[in-house]
Design brief:
Pfam families: Response_reg. Keywords: Phosphoprotein, Transcription, Transcription regulation. The radius of gyration is 13 Å and the shape is globular. It has five helices and five strands, in the order βαβαβαβαβα. The longest helix has 13 residues. The chain has a five-stranded parallel sheet with strand order 2-1-3-4-5, with helices on both faces. α2 runs parallel beside α3. With 129 residues, the chain is of the alpha/beta class.
């Protein structure tokens, strides 16, 4: 089973993401900020990271830079999930090593499509979507 780390300061967003990702077949671990996420990643790197941008302690952008410098840190597929939708934020995220970008609010179809694009899941059939 593939693993996904959900990093968001909103417990509601983490809960929604967990439900969607578990339906897609992932085991899910949660972190409320980038610092906690980095601690988790130094122990075990997940297959995927759904990452918020704006968080206290350490934001998603700083976390991503530090993740990519960890041994094996280039491995996890990182999908930014944020309300920041201007082209500057998107290009900064992709240049920092993000694999994809999702706008909030999101649903299962959006998450599945982005995870499929980065090779984390196979195409969903119409019945299972």
């Amino acid at each position: 089973m593939k693993s996904c780390l959900v990093v968001d300061d909103s417990s509601v967003v983490r809960k929604i993401a967990r439900r969607i990702l578990e339906e897609l077949g992932f085991s899910v671990v949660e972190a409320e900020d980038g610092e906690r996420a980095l601690e988790l990643c130094t122990k075990t790197l997940p297959d995927a990271i759904l990452l918020d941008w704006n968080m206290p302690v350490m934001d998603g952008y700083d976390f991503l830079g530090r993740l990519r410098r960890l041994p094996g840190g280039e491995g996890p597929k990182v999908v930014f999930c944020t309300t920041e939708n201007d082209i500057d934020h998107i290009s900064r995220a992709l240049n920092a090593g993000a694999n994809e970008y999702i706008m909030k609010p999101f649903d299962k179809e959006i998450v599945a499509a982005k995870f499929q694009e980065v090779g984390l899941i196979q195409a969903l059939s119409a019945e299972s979507a």
